[in-house]
Amino acid sequence: MSLAGKAEWLGERHLQRLLAALADGGEEARVAGGAVRNALIGQPVADVDIATTTVPDETIRRAEAAGFKAVPTGIEHGTITIVAGGKPFEVTTLRADIETDGRRAKVSFGRDWKADAERRDFTINALYAEADGTIVDLVGGVADIEARRLRFIGDPEARIREDYLRILRFFRFFAWYGDGRPDAEGLKACARLKEGLGQLSVERVWSELKKLLSAPDPSRALLWMRQASVLTSVLPESEKWGIDAIHALTRAEKDLGWTPDPLLRLEAIVPPDAARMKTLAERLRFSVSDAGRLRQWALTAPAEPKTTEAELAKRLYRGDHQGVVDRLRLSLASARARAVEDNDALLEAGGFSRLLAFTGKWKKPDFPLKGADLTTLGASPGPKLGATLKNLENEWVESGFALDRGALLERAAEALES
């Protein structure tokens, strides 16, 4: 089998020069892993990694002699990042694990392509491609790609004990590339060894979960994660809440053209409890942005489908815009799923669609008054000025933002005289 006609990027001049430089004098270099997998599946290739028989110092020497920049980003594990034609390529010397602790491995460098393939996680990730596109498959990865089957290489338990993150990667890659049911032996091994997830850094856990939740349709993978009690291990908030809403959400995304949103999908499977969401975000060390969004969603009350646009405008002004949008999207997805057999739900879906369309057009208006306007009227800086300004803003909002600056100044003068 060959990548000919399936991978235009392979013919790129700088990549070919780099492969040639690394393969000179009896050495070998091949494109490895995800780039080969995605090319065969027909999915975009973002990064191109290279495996080579040259040891790291020799990799650096050859790259620089060819005019490329070499950065020793992971030299202790045999990885050098080479910048060729403005693009980074991770070049790694063939390796074999000599010691693992479930989180990281000590490696020895070698020249055995089969040993290098067998230390990887899944068969579909252990494929190589020669510079001319010829596929080198030493573990049955091509057949598994054709069957959309995800399998660990060799003994699943052995692969997992080398790095417990592979439990989450099993479900993540199943979400992206698998079909039907997950491999039975792999699923059993994940269930048996799930306690090992506690050894991982929370950053690695959330990174994998976020990638899984970014898949075109993560619902089947989440279902099997729940069946294996893996989901509860890393996301206990989902245990008594359930994941049924994720099916409706992914269908709505496809039908309505929404971009898959991992945070919205997370919100679909956890309870809208601000305190628990704060704990979740702290435990998994969310970014400030993601933590804030999750908390605001939990604090935002759901809208009713009969809510008027005027009422929604007030909520948008006083609340969090993203929180309102998230609530409406989840409500719309749920109503659409129920509408198949429920006419009332069909009407609800129409209401939520109308409100969502309004949020897309709505722009937050600027309150016409400032504190300086009240001091001009004779108000002294202090709590009374602030309270007066706040009361005036509330009146303005309740008027549907209709009161103009002149009317507000009149009301301000009356308030300050009283």
Automatic annotation (TrEMBL):
InterPro entries: Bact_CCA-adding_enz_type3_sf, NT_sf, PolA_pol_head_dom, PolyA_RNA-bd. CDD domains: NT_ClassII-CCAase (cd05398). GO terms for biological process: tRNA processing. Gene3D superfamilies: Beta Polymerase, domain 2, cca-adding enzyme, domain 2. It comes from the Bacteria. It holds the Pfam family PolyA_pol_RNAbd. Residues 186-238 form the tRNA nucleotidyltransferase/poly(A) polymerase RNA and SrmB- binding domain. Keywords: Magnesium, Metal-binding, Nucleotide-binding, Nucleotidyltransferase, RNA-binding, Transferase, tRNA processing. Residues 29-151 form the Poly A polymerase head domain. Its cofactor is Mg(2+). SUPFAM superfamilies: Nucleotidyltransferase, Poly A polymerase C-terminal region-like. One of its GO terms (molecular function) is nucleotide binding. Belongs to the tRNA nucleotidyltransferase/poly(A) polymerase family. PANTHER family: CCA TRNA NUCLEOTIDYLTRANSFERASE 1, MITOCHONDRIAL. This is CCA tRNA nucleotidyltransferase.
